[in-house]
Design brief:
Length: 322
């Protein structure tokens, strides 16, 4: 799937239009409160990458809801994150206790849900069936509360098998890689990926899930909510270290929350806040990855890219202080 000039957008103008100025009169939380739902015994890096990237871009608060096994590890990565060790995997739960534990998880999340500007579902989540069932219930509550959701990693495995969780929800964003995209196309369109007609297929996929926004990751990133397709091809890095998708999910969550606030003040936007959020997150990650590669070349790691997020955002959108 190749981008063409008609699909390319003015990424810098879009990013500038939604990035808030820094004002001494603002209080903690007004620049965004993000929550990552993910993290289990095997995977603790992914939720950290997503949550810390949100802070590095400018969110004020970043939470992680994870399993008890993952919590201490994630806390040890950074004191900046608010970690909630409330999720459970099947191995630690008796069958007769599953209903009560699931209810407790929802009860705890409900205490926080109305405070969040966006959820990131999936980084490091794993595929334990009981854990996925609990996360499904969290997603239902988020949808009832009109909270945007950025879905990545094992979250995409979950929704591909339970499309009703996000179908026809305009505040849902999916960020599939090549294999995740293939499974979505097979599930929804009942065919194989066709890059010769990739633009139309992406439109059909987004429409087929009821107008959710899809950010198809690749050499160029393609974004659609079923109405149009936009491409982001600028910057980038040939180094494909794992974890870049986690940076993207945290970035998109922040930009979606900012875009929604701008749209709420300006009225009906010309472009969906979820689409603007995807475009902004895509171009920022690509620029940070290019800077990291310039410095580290073949040894570039996800942590190097995270350290370049601030510089990259400043270059694209110099901070305004008022």
């Amino acid at each position: 799937m190749q981008s063409c000039p008609s699909m390319e957008v003015d990424t810098v103008s879009i990013l500038k239009s939604i990035t808030p100025s820094l004002q001494s009169s603002k209080h903690k939380g007004q620049a965004g409160k993000i929550a990552v739902i993910g993290g289990c015994r095997e995977y603790t890096g992914a939720p950290y990458f997503s949550a810390i990237s949100a802070l590095k871009i400018g969110a004020d608060l970043s939470h992680v809801f994870c399993t008890k096994d993952a919590a201490l590890v994630i806390k040890g990565y950074s004191p900046e994150l608010i970690v909630h060790p409330i999720l459970e995997e099947s191995y630690s739960v008796r069958d007769e206790d599953k209903k009560s534990i699931s209810d407790k998880v929802i009860e705890e999340v409900d205490k926080w849900m109305e405070r969040f500007d966006c959820l990131v579902i999936g980084p490091g989540l794993g595929r334990d069936l009981f854990l996925l069932d609990c996360v499904s219930n969290i997603m239902k509550r988020a949808r009832e509360s009109n909270v945007p959701m950025v879905i990545d990693g094992d979250g995409l495995f979950l929704v591909t098998n339970s499309l009703d969780l996000i179908s026809s929800y305009p505040l849902a964003v999916l960020t599939p890689n090549v294999n995740e995209y293939k499974r979505l196309v097979q599930k929804v369109l009942h065919c194989e990926v066709n890059d010769q007609d990739g633009t139309q297929q992406l439109l059909s996929l987004a429409k087929g899930i009821g107008g959710v926004t899809i950010l198809r990751k690749g050499e160029s990133d393609f974004i659609s909510n079923g109405e149009t397709v936009h491409a982001v091809s600028s910057f980038g890095s040939p180094r494909r270290c794992g974890g870049q998708g986690d940076i993207l999910s945290g970035s998109v969550a922040v930009f979606v929350s900012w875009a929604r606030k701008v749209a709420a003040k300006a009225g009906e936007p010309s472009m969906s806040p979820t689409v603007k959020g995807c475009i902004s997150g895509s171009v920022l990650l690509r620029k940070a990855a290019s800077h990291a590669f310039e410095s580290n070349r073949r040894s570039t790691l996800t942590t190097d890219i995270i350290e370049h997020l601030g510089r990259s955002l400043e270059e694209l959108c110099p901070v305004l202080v008022s």
